[in-house]
Write a structure and sequence with these properties.
By secondary structure, this protein is of the alpha/beta class. It has a domain of about 190 residues: 3-Layer(aba) Sandwich (Rossmann fold), CATH 3.40.50. Helix 5 crosses helix 10. The longest helix is centred in the N-terminal third of the chain and has 25 residues. The protein is globular and about 50 Å long. The two termini are about 25 Å apart.
Length: about 270
Amino acid sequence: MNRPNADARFSGSIPSLYQELLVPMLFQPYATDLVARVVMRSCARVLELAAGTGAVTRHLAALLPPSSTLVATDLNQAMLDLAITCGTARSVTWRQADAMALPFDDGAFDAVVCQFGVMFFPDKAKAFAEMRRVLVPEGTLYFNVWDRIEENEFAHTVSTTVAAAFPADPPQFMVRTPHGYAEPADIRRDLLAGGFTAEPRVDTVPLRSHAPTPRVVAMAFCQGTPLRAEIEARDAARLEAVTALAEAALARRFGAGPLDGRMQGHVVVVGR
């Protein structure tokens, strides 16, 4: 969530649907995993990028030492506004910020954390350079990205169904952006270009995604992500009909519910 382009625009009704549907289905399990890695080390000053509606922020606020400071940022103020209303177990500094031009001093943080945000940064090497700049010399960057869409069953089912609904101009948001940065070699290349010379640890982490009904999954992707804008750009009147097509495809593949699907991401940890 970095530059104000269509893929990175989370506004309107998207933040509330994102928090209600996508966070428990996709982001909460990986938030637990990512934060567990962060709190293994002593981090007095933590910066979170692309915080969204605060899935990781809430875990960090609950598990970091009381003496630590936590700053959570996102490009989209609407996402931060919702995160603030959700509340945290301790004080958090919320700030709108562009990951490629961070408004913080050099060496201001012991750790930088970013959950499923790097994929949205138009110039990843520049963003990594900014992350490195604000880290202390002994600091650590923690982030995760989605693996290929074929390894993420709910997203793949919805994406292929929506694409088939517009054969002349298939929406490709899910493939292009959330699942478009899945190769560890590309991540290593961009980290190096951003100034990180240490070898990153890249763990591929498979988890399970759960939802009560196919409707929840279809709504989450078709109306709770920027995929909605792609559908509406082609035919706004078909948003509900296309959502129903995705719902039917999910029901055929996973049943009427509850649904259980495979999801997979890469978790990257690298020292400054």
